[in-house]
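FW: tagging you since you asked about this chain on Friday. Here's the raw sequence from the shared folder, copied in full. Didn't touch anything.
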Amino acid sequence: MRLVAAAQASGSRAQALADRAAALLFYIAVAAGTLTFAYWWVAGDKQHALIRSATVLVIACPHALGLAIPLAIAISTTIGARNGLLVKDRLALERARDLDVVIFDKTGTLTRGAPVLSGVAVAPHIDEGEMLGLAAAVEADSEHPIAKAIVKGAARRGVKPTPAAGFDALPGLGARAGVNGHSVAVGGPRLLAGTGATVPSELDHAVSTWASEGRTVLYVLRDGAVIGSIAVEDEIRPESVEAVKALHDLGVR
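HL: got it, structure written out here
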């Protein structure tokens, strides 16, 4: 509400122009009213001199010009705020018609602001459901957003995690826990560097593709060996694609 109020109170070029025009027209209206009064007074029609001069003043007074732009700005900023568009300055709103480049804050604007599981790849002779179940079992006790994304992603794929024991959060590396008698760890490249584990060549293509797309790549290790990799990304809002396309159609980059 403060941003909307500030936008409505801020000045603009159109408002300044309207104010100058209204000031000029005010003096013209007063002069026209005075001349009307003087004419009819000199003509001897003193009874109607005041009435007709007042009529001229009412008709010629530019009050509508001074009120139209603030009213239009107030309505437009209010409607914009209701639709999620906050205008901080009226001058910026006027200049918006000349935009040719738009810069978005991606997280929470073009995306939902919450990571989701978007890719799974497994090493040879490893079942995808088994690998994902182990990862979800480790992350089930974690409060990290990426951990929640893995657990939810596994659930959407119909994978139920096996209860884990001895959960251990590894700051900056990932997480580790015991699952079905195995030591299972989930983490990024720093986890691999810390354990000395190597990534099977069968995972290289998926991992490189995910990395080039800006996704977060995690690895699942069982007893120190990499058995699969997981991609997590901030989900793009469906309406973002339409919005960007509409901007491109308008010639905005």
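FW: DSSP finds eleven helices and six strands in the chain.
HL: agreed, and The two ends are 30 Å apart (CA to CA).
FW: great, closing this out.
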